[in-house]
What does this fold into?
Amino acid sequence: MACAYHHKSIFWPSISSIEIIDKPKELCFGIMFYVELDSGHLACDGCEGLEEPVCIKYCNALARNELTEIISKLRTTKDSWG
Amino acid sequence: MGDREIYGYAGKILRVDLTTSRLSIEPTIKYAREWLGGSGLAQWILYNEVKPGTAPYEPSNKLVIGAGPLNGTLAPGASRVTADSKSPVTGGVGSSNSDGHFSAELKFAGFDTIVFEGKAKDPVYLWLKDDCIEFRDALPLWGKTTWETDDIIKHELSDERIQIMCIGPAGENLVRGGCIIVNRGRACGRCGLGAVMGSKNLKAVAVRGSGGVEVAEPERFMRAVDNARNVFANMDEQTPAIKYGTLRIAASKQEQCGIPYKNFQYLDLPANAFNRLIKAIEDWQQEYRIRIMGYPACPRPCDRYFRIERGPYAGLECGGVQFEALTDFAGKLAVDDPEFILKINSYCNELGLDIDNLAGPISWAMECYEKGILKENDTGGMKLDWGDKDVILELTRKIAYREGFGRILGEGCARCAQLFGRGSEYFAIHMKGQDLYESMRNAIGWALGACVSTRGGGHTTGAPAIETSGNVDADLAEKVYGVRALANPQAFEGKAKLVGYFELLHRSNNSLGICHLLTTSSNPSFMGFCELAELYSAATGWETTEDDLKRFAERMLNVEKAFNILHAGFSRRDDYPPPRCLEEPIPRGPAAGFKNRKGEKG
It folds into this structure.
């Protein structure tokens, strides 16, 4: 929700660059990033210009580490996907 | 602000007539300015549209499932969904709510509320995907557990992101403790609302939305969100509230004589049983695979999903184990096997049975059996010994499927006692017919809140859990609640005022869609009326003060009381606690000897 809100000022998960899929039976979450414009989802720009990406800032304590790692990789390789 | 007619809300209410399969839509704004949303809006609809004299299972009773104006946003704890109807348990107000992803998804699909009326000819489930609304055949789902239902619908519709509220066999069979299960382990538990769904031949509601929620003043709203989240900023997986969820309060409840044992005869667990339980809760963290689960916008997730991989329950998966499960099973039923609590909690979720409304009549029956009031020829030959796991499992199955003695127990302890008589009424611990988990002899405010609750039992409708949470700073308590004497649960002073605060706060939360655990309901440092009013103002663009919010809640409370008078004939007499709570002093523990008193001023 934070991602779409950052880009469009609307809480709108279906355009967000990140999608979290709850998988209780697998005891995990699925985290999907859209690095290119895809099916209406915005391409992740790693929250360029912000000290901390909003998906990390508003993530609850549970997936923050995983998200930080993924975003960090995305930011590092930005030239190849942005 | 843009040019929408309404912000924060999705803007539409869906009306579903299950008898005629007719759908209609009305604008949320018709109600929102006076009734906020969620439960407030639902109660107003029920008050106006359900005639007194309507039986809860009649098609003309209505079931209202709702989201609040803050659901689908980043407001902390905006994860609650509400279900309201005329209750088959009390005959009066039926109002229950649950965490989960459903309420946000409902708003993303474009709706704030769904009002069901009528009765489908054959079992159906409602599939709502944005503007496409479809009745689907639920005959193949009838008889399935809630978990099977969840799996089948997601498979049938080829989307694991669908959010589902559904009932199990208990709701289908009109068991009064039939509840609505959300996200497999969460429940709109109390009041028998799953049975109302069952009476309408409505197996499930499935939603998926592709839209968004727009707020009136985006920058102001995010400032309000950030401000409200500050207090949770340093919490992580080791924070007890996250690591253990509500199980963490077991120790303080034991110290406060707040765990009813053997049908409320005692108010703490025997030392050995308690120590085993505490050790088990710690061991579970190490030995079982656990995933902590959070719901939308929650900075302090408290749910957990267990998978047991060894021992007699190997293979068991279980979500939604909260403090209430300890109270109901280790406490009221005296089960001295912590793993079994996971097992029975899971079984209840699958059957769609509220654990309070299950443990209530079983613990009543066990005490009556212990005292010789019930014999084996009453129980279908079963010996009802305390803590007997096989008996508890078998009775649970019988209750859900309305078989034998379970058919009677499924009516709840109040009706059971009425049926059997023989003095068993004294051992039926209920308020207005609703079975309780709330211990009502150790804490004056908690007892008062549970007593005057319009639905009977009030941990989400007015009972102040903060009273027994220990070490609340007196100055802060006075500032927030207007009451200093929180440190002494047995003190009368200020408790009426405290309950008044909680009656309004809980209703405000239930209407906005906010989890109580993120508010001053749980901790005086968390969000209070001031923060909630600011979030609501920024979301809707309707300037709303703290006092305005309290007035909304007060109006809602008055409507609930009017509903109870008109539909159930309740009066002040029905606000008195069960006789045991007034006649017996606490038999042991730190509060031993304390006895509540009728007519005491507070």
Observations:
- Chain A touches chain B at residues 1-2, 4-5, 8-15, 21-25, 27-28, 40, 58, 60-62 (CB under 8 Å).
- Chain A has a mean pLDDT of 81.
- Strands of chain A lie at 18-23, 28-33.
